[in-house]
Design brief:
The complex is a heterodimer of chains A (587) and B (96). Chain A has 23 helices and 16 strands. Chain A is α/β, with parallel strands linked by helices and 587 residues long. Chain A folds into four domains: 113 residues, Phosphohistidine domain (Glucose Oxidase, domain 1, 3-Layer(bba) Sandwich); 113 residues, Enzyme I, Chain A, domain 2 (Orthogonal Bundle), CATH 1.10.274; 138 residues, TIM Barrel (Alpha-Beta Barrel); 157 residues, Phosphoenolpyruvate-binding domains (TIM Barrel, Alpha-Beta Barrel). In chain A, strands 1-8-7-3-4-5-6-2 form an eight-stranded mixed β-sheet. In chain A, strands 9-10-11-12-13-14-15-16 form an eight-stranded parallel beta barrel, surrounded by five helices. In chain A, helix 1 packs antiparallel against helix 2, helix 12 packs parallel to helix 14 and helix 14 packs across helix 15. The longest helix of chain A is centred in the N-terminal third of the chain and has 30 residues. Chain A is globular. Chain B has 96 residues and is α+β, with helices and mostly antiparallel strands. Chain B has a single domain, classed as Histidine-containing Protein, Chain: A. Chain B is built from three helices and four strands. Chain B has a four-stranded antiparallel β-sheet with strand order 1-4-2-3. The chains are: A alpha/beta (587), B alpha+beta (96). Chains A and B meet through helix 2 and helix 4 of A and helix 1 and helix 2 of B.
Chain lengths: 587, 96
C-alpha cells in the first residue's frame, strides 16, 4: 500500500482499477506473465516489433516518394529506434527477468526514453517525445490486437491517472466509466480540477511523480476530501472507504431534499448562494441544488476546446445556452482568464518562454493586448444579454487604468453592435474581480467606477502570500484564513458598502464551510461556490444568525495566525451545525 | 586484422541542430559499417548507431562534435560522415 498526498480539487471518494492516460491509449490488461510463458511472449513481442517496423517502412516509402527524402527521414528514424537491437534487448530483459508482459515491458522502456527526450531542455528536440509516444502506441496496438479496450469505449469503471490531463485526452474518455482523477502536476485551477468539478467526480492533483510506481489495473483509491491517493490499498483501508462513500451518498440525498428552501439566515437575512460553472451543462447542476444564479461562469473552455479562436457565434451559442438554462436567474460571465500555462496554440506567441506565468501576460492583460479576441467575446455577451440577466466581470484587474481601458473597449463594442444593427442589451452591470492585492487596497477608488465586486480568493491568496498553491513544497502557506486575506476581504466589503454595490465571493473559500459564518459576518451577502457545495453552504447559512456571524468575524479578526483562525472557525462551525458532521467525517 | 581508431572534428551546420532527420541519416550510414562509432559533444557521448543516443547529444547549431570510429572500416565511415556534415545534410533540411 502506498499513500500519496496531493491537492484535493473535487470532493468525494471512489476506488477502482487504475488507467494510466497518455501513455496508455487503451487499457493494458495484465502486467505479468507466467514463467513458462516467457518464450512465447518474447516471440509475440518480436513479431509485433516486426509488424511495427513493416508499418513504418511503408510510411517511410510513401513519405519519401510523395513528399521527399527529408520527410521520409523522420520515419526512417522511427524505424531505427524500433529496430535497434539495444531497444529490443531492453524490453526482452524486462520480460525475462521480471516476468513483465510484453505490453508492460514495452511501456516501461518507451516511457523511459520519452522522459529522457522530454528532459533534453531544447524545445525542438523535446517535441520528439511525442514521436516516441506514438511508437509506443503503435507497438501496443500490435501487441494487444483485438484485445485492447479503447478509451472511448470502456466497459468497466476506472480511475484515470495522468501526468496532466489535456483537453484532447479527456475528450475521448467515456466519462460514465470514470470514477476519479489523479494527476502528478496541476493545481486547483488546472484542467483536471475543472473537469472533475464539472463531472462531479473526486480528484486529487499535484501528487508529484507517482506514475512510475503504478501499473494499469492496480487498485487505487482517490480521496478528494483529504487530497490522498492510495495505491494498492489493504483490505482494512478499502473497507473504511466503502463506508465513507456510503455516508456521503446518504448525506447528499438528505441535503438534496431541502434544496428548495430559500437560502436565508435564521433571522431572515437573504444570502444568495450561486454556482461556479465552466460548461453550459453545469447550470443544471446548480439549479437542481437550489442555486440563486451563476456567480462565476468561466469561459476558458471555449478557448481550449480547439486550436483556433472561437468565433462570436461559438461564444454566443454557449452564453445563450447558459442563459436559457438559468431561467432568469443572474449569470456573471467572466471574460477570458487564461494563464500563460493554459494559453492555446493560437496565442502562445504572446507568452514569453521562461518568464513567470502567474505574473505575466494573462487574463485581462491578454484581452487588453489582443483586442480582436476581447471584442469578439464582449460582443457575444452583450448580444446574449438580450435573453436574460447577464453581467460581465473582468478578471485580474490590477490598476484603475486597466479597468478604464477595459470599459473603453466595452464602449467601442457597443458602438460596433449599434452599427451592425443586431439585437443587444447595452445596460448590463459590469464589475471586476478582486484577486490582486493592489485592487483590494484601492477598493475605495474602484468602487466609484464598478457596478460590483467579485472576490476571487484563489488568486488573491496566491498573490498576497506569494505562494503557488500547486507547489507541494510551499502549499501549506496557502490558506484562506490567513489574517492578511481576511483584512483584504474586509477592505473590499467596506468599500462596496460605502457605495452600496454588491460583493460576491467566489473561489475555493466559498465552498469551505467553516468560512461561511466568517464571510457572512463580514457583510458578504452573495456567495458563489462549486455546484456540489451549494446544498451544504445553504445548510450552514440556515443555521446562522447575523449577530452570531458578526461575533465570529470580530473574534476571528483578532487572531494573528492562519492556523489558529482555522481551528477557531472549525470549532464554531461544529457548534453551529453539528448535524452536518457525524463523528468520523473529517471537518 | 588491423585495429584502427579514427578521430575527426565536425561542426553542426544544420539550421535546427542535430535533429531527427540528420540523425536518421547518420544512423543509417553508421549501421552499414562494422566498426564502433561514437559521437561526443562536450561531456555527452553516444553510440552513433542509436537514435536515442544522438538525440541526447543535444547538438545545437554551431556545436563542435568529435567523431570517433574504431574498427577496420573506421576511416571510410568517418570520411562519409564528414561529407554528410559538410554538405550532405542539406538534402534533409526543411524545404521552406
Amino acid at each position: 500500500m502506498l499513500v500519496k498526498r496531493g491537492i484535493a480539487v473535487s470532493p468525494g471518494v471512489n476506488f477502482g482499477p487504475a488507467l494510466i492516460l497518455g501513455t496508455e491509449d487503451f487499457r493494458i490488461p495484465r502486467q505479468f506473465v507466467s514463467v513458462n510463458a516467457i518464450e512465447t511472449e518474447i516471440a509475440r513481442l518480436r513479431s509485433s516489433l516486426d509488424a511495427v517496423c513493416e508499418e513504418i517502412a511503408v510510411n517511410e516509402r510513401l513519405a519519401s516518394d510523395k513528399l521527399g527524402v527529408q520527410y521520409g527521414a523522420i520515419f526512417a528514424a522511427h524505424l531505427q529506434m524500433v529496430s535497434s537491437p539495444r531497444h529490443r534487448d531492453e524490453i526482452e530483459t524486462l520480460i525475462r527477468e521480471k516476468c513483465y508482459s510484453p505490453e508492460h515491458a514495452s511501456c516501461r522502456v518507451f516511457r523511459r526514453y520519452t522522459k529522457l527526450v522530454q528532459h533534453l531542455g531544447d524545445n525542438y528536440l523535446a517535441e520528439r517525445a511525442s514521436d516516441i509516444i506514438d511508437l509506443e502506441k503503435r507497438l501496443l496496438k500490435q501487441l494487444l490486437g483485438e484485445k485492447r479496450e479503447e478509451l472511448s469505449n470502456l466497459t468497466t469503471p476506472i480511475i484515470v491517472l495522468a501526468n496532466n490531463l489535456t483537453p484532447s485526452e479527456t475528450a475521448s474518455l467515456a466519462k460514465d466509466f470514470v470514477l476519479g482523477f489523479a494527476t502528478e502536476v496541476g493545481g486547483r485551477t488546472s484542467h483536471t480540477a475543472i473537469l472533475a468539478g464539472a463531472l462531479e467526480i473526486p480528484a486529487v492533483v499535484g501528487l508529484g511523480e507517482f506514475l512510475s510506481d503504478i501499473s494499469g489495473g492496480d487498485m487505487v483509491i482517490v480521496d478528494g476530501n483529504n487530497g490522498e491517493v492510495i495505491i494498492d490499498p489493504d483490505e482494512e483501508t478499502l473497507e473504511k472507504y466503502r463506508d465513507t462513500g456510503e455516508r456521503q451518498r446518504s448525506m447528499a440525498a438528505r441535503l438534496a431534499s431541502r434544496r428548495k428552501i430559500r437560502s436565508e439566515t435564521k433571522d431572515g437575512t437573504r444570502i444568495h448562494v450561486m454556482g461556479n460553472i465552466e460548461f453550459p451543462d453545469e447550470v443544471e447542476h446548480c439549479t437542481e441544488r437550489g442555486a440563486d444564479g451563476i456567480g462565476l461562469y468561466r469561459t476558458e473552455f471555449l478557448y481550449l476546446q480547439s486550436d483556433t479562436e472561437p468565433t462570436e457565434q461559438v461564444h454566443y451559442d454557449a452564453y445563450c445556452r447558459v442563459v436559457k438554462a438559468a431561467q432568469n436567474r443572474p449569470i456573471i460571465i467572466r471574460t477570458l482568464d487564461l494563464g500563460a500555462d493554459k494559453i492555446p496554440r493560437a496565442y502562445r506567441y504572446l507568452a514569453k518562454e521562461g518568464m513567470n506565468p502567474a505574473l505575466g501576460l494573462r487574463s485581462v492583460r491578454l484581452s487588453l493586448r489582443d483586442l480582436p479576441l476581447f471584442k469578439t467575446q464582449l460582443r457575444a455577451i452583450f448580444r446574449a444579454a438580450v435573453h436574460g440577466d447577464v453581467r460581465i466581470m473582468f478578471p485580474l484587474i490590477s490598476t484603475l487604468l486597466e479597468w478604464r481601458q477595459a470599459k473603453m473597449i466595452v464602449g467601442d463594442v457597443l458602438e460596433d453592435l449599434e452599427e451592425r444593427g443586431v439585437d443587444f442589451n447595452p445596460d448590463i452591470p459590469i464589475g471586476m474581480m478582486v484577486e490582486v492585492p493592489a485592487a483590494a487596497l484601492l477598493a475605495n477608488e474602484f468602487a466609484e467606477e464598478v457596478d460590483f465586486f467579485s472576490i476571487g480568493t484563489n488568486d488573491l491568496i496566491q498573490y498576497t502570500l506569494a505562494v503557488d498553491r500547486s507547489d507541494p513544497a510551499v502549499s501549506t502557506l496557502y490558506n484562506s484564513s490567513d489574517p492578511s486575506i481576511l483584512r483584504l476581504i474586509k477592505m473590499v466589503v467596506q468599500a462596496a458598502d460605502k457605495k452600496n454595490i454588491p460583493v460576491t465571493v467566489c473561489g475555493q473559500m466559498s465552498a469551505d464551510l467553516k468560512s461561511i459564518p466568517l464571510l457572512v459576518g463580514m457583510g458578504i451577502r452573495q456567495i458563489s461556490a462549486t455546484p456540489l457545495a451549494i446544498p451544504e453552504v445553504k445548510e450552514v447559512i440556515r443555521h446562522l444568525t447575523i449577530a452570531r456571524a458578526e461575533e465570529i468575524t470580530a473574534h476571528a479578526m483578532t487572531i494573528d495566525v492562519a492556523r489558529d483562525v482555522d481551528s477557531y472557525l472549525r470549532g464554531e462551525l461544529y457548534k453551529i451545525c453539528p448535524d452536518l458532521f457525524d463523528e468520523e467525517m473529517p471537518l | 586484422m588491423q585495429e584502427s581508431v579514427c578521430r575527426q572534428l565536425v561542426t553542426v551546420k544544420m539550421k535546427q541542430g542535430l535533429h531527427l532527420r540528420p540523425i536518421s541519416e547518420i544512423v543509417r550510414i553508421a549501421r552499414l559499417y562494422e566498426c564502433d562509432f561514437k559521437i561526443t559533444n562536450g561531456d555527452r557521448s553516444g553510440d552513433a548507431k542509436e537514435v536515442y543516443d544522438l538525440l541526447e547529444l543535444k547538438a545545437l547549431p554551431k556545436t563542435e562534435l568529435v567523431l570517433e570510429a574504431n574498427g577496420d572500416d573506421a576511416s571510410k565511415l568517418i570520411e562519409e560522415i564528414v561529407q554528410f556534415f559538410e554538405s550532405g545534410y542539406k538534402k534533409f533540411e526543411e524545404v521552406d
